[in-house]
Amino acid sequence: MKSLICLSLILLPLIFISVVEGFHGKSVPIKDVSARNIEEVAKYAINEHNSESNDNLVFVKVIEGKRQVLSAIIYDLIIAAKNNGGATKNYKAVVMESERDKILYSFNEV
């Protein structure tokens, strides 16, 4: 957990500087949301959410998503996941992926 905090303290200023200076990339829709790397990001988001909240959500599929490339890649995904009762609900996850690590910034039911 400490490494995630340190990483975010390093990367967030870099992202902020990129945005302020106008070198940020445009957020674009992800055309193939069933691609392996997109599903890996979605599963990471669910696993992180489960460990932080003691939920037991199970990945079903990625419904839609956007990707923005800055000094890292920011994924904004809508994910279908099953809860303990077997009901499938949609969740919005925002994940930042750098060369070394992933960080879950938000995970909420939509």
From TrEMBL:
SMART domains in alphabetical order: CY
SUPFAM superfamilies in the record: Cystatin/monellin
Keyword line: Protease inhibitor, Signal, Thiol protease inhibitor
Record keyword Signal present: yes
Keyword field contains Signal: yes
Signal peptide start and end residues: 1-22
Domain Cystatin: residue ranges: 18-110
One GO MF term: cysteine-type endopeptidase inhibitor activity
Pfam families, per the entry: SQAPI
InterPro entries named among the record's database cross-references: Cystatin_dom, Cystatin_sf
Protein name as catalogued: Cystatin domain-containing protein
Protein's organism: Brassica carinata
